[in-house]
Write a structure and sequence with these properties.
The chain is of the alpha+beta class and 492 residues long. Helices cover 29% and strands 26% of the residues. The protein has 18 helices and 26 strands.
Length: 492
Amino acid sequence: MIDKPIDKCGVFGIYKHPDAAVMTYYGLQALQHRGQEGCGIVTSEFVETKNRNFFHIYKDFGLVNDVFKDENILKNVLRGNSAIGHVRYSTAGSAFNKQNIQPLTVHYKNGNLAISHNGNLVNYKSIRNYLIEEGTIFQTTSDTELVLHLIARSKEKEQVMQILDALNQIEGAFSFVFLTDNMLIAARDPAGWRPLNIGKFDGAYVVASETCAFDIIGAEYIREVLPGEIIVIDDEVLQTGNIKSYYLKNKFSKPFHCIFEYIYFSRPDSYIFGESVDKIRRRLGKILAEENPVKSINEQEKVIVINVPDSSNTATLGFVSRNNKLGNPSKYEIGLIRSHYIGRTFIQPEQNNREIQVKTKFNKVRGVLKDKVVVIVDDSIVRGTTSKQLVKLIREAEPKEIHFRVASPPIRYPCYYGMDFPEPNELIANQCEGNIEKIKKELDVDSLAYLSLEGLLKSVPKDNNQWYCTACFTGEYPIPIQDKNQKDEFEI
């Protein structure tokens, strides 16, 4: 496994389109980078002879293409003109429990209800334990399921008010998409940690974690779901074009967008928090070069700058552009080739395990690197294990020097709001006590430099009271983490 932070999930929804399942399938394909463990789609079909809606669901472990490789699933099983979908990476809830794969569905007093969730609830264990003591029976170990129980237990009469009531009881990062018998509902937490967007396609409304899911089907981007907003799409909205909005109790004077969406998670062709991800990543690379330029040994010879495919591609372009403007002749080259066809390696040698894993995914281009001053640009370093092996791989090509530049500050703290980081003692920045010189020696490079926190915040937009969560760098958590020391007795 390549050593990177992992995002929780991606969500997609569409209301009233004749090819709802197929459009959701393509939307999930565009969001595949947000979760590769499992995926699923739920559709809503109104059956006139029964005078009621029926939900159809299909989900399994694996990538979107693999789970839905039989076109009969999309055409004949997932019938209906409204749908929600989900791509999953597990954090709260076992990766090996198929019931944890979303969307989750229930039938309760107000009809059918399905839910997809991107994020992480910081108080889910305490709420779950309370519900279990009250006699609630859980079918999954996911934090998402408790939201369904809170909705079903609500004393409110209308479904929208039940959802509002439930979401006011939870804390943490969440972007939810709900499907009911006659509504598509999207909700975002009051801090706005995770992205969620609204679009329109062929007369239907769509919602998705990232705008790249709109591009693949040709949908028009309308706007973001605002922090703390619940939007409701129903037949009345289709007729009037006026989206219905409700608001959660707002405990924040400003949002706390996850800054890692810009650094790594989101696709560069998406718009996140109102800005182009590609534009921000180029800016990260430029400020990284301003803070930590690299000069060639010989003024007649250009510095060769390479990226670690694929997440640091655009930051590398920004670094090269600014390093050149600073009077340091530089050239962007493809020095690492990534294989896009490597799945999980189940049979591995006992020795050099990490080296084999890296070499199955990357190989160096010797002719580009030999006898050159080489700069490696990466978006982040987590454990450092993969970075060490990449440096070792590049050294085999016999460059003159290797310099490592990182387009984010050192990661030193766990995330509780929708990213999966290792324990603090597994992070290389902590193992080396935050000492950059020690990390440099661990990686075996001639120089190492990170983007400063000030440079990072300078790179991202802060218009309209925009602000960001930087807890993984600073340890300053906007919401106290209630459950971090509470043992989870229910993992299966």
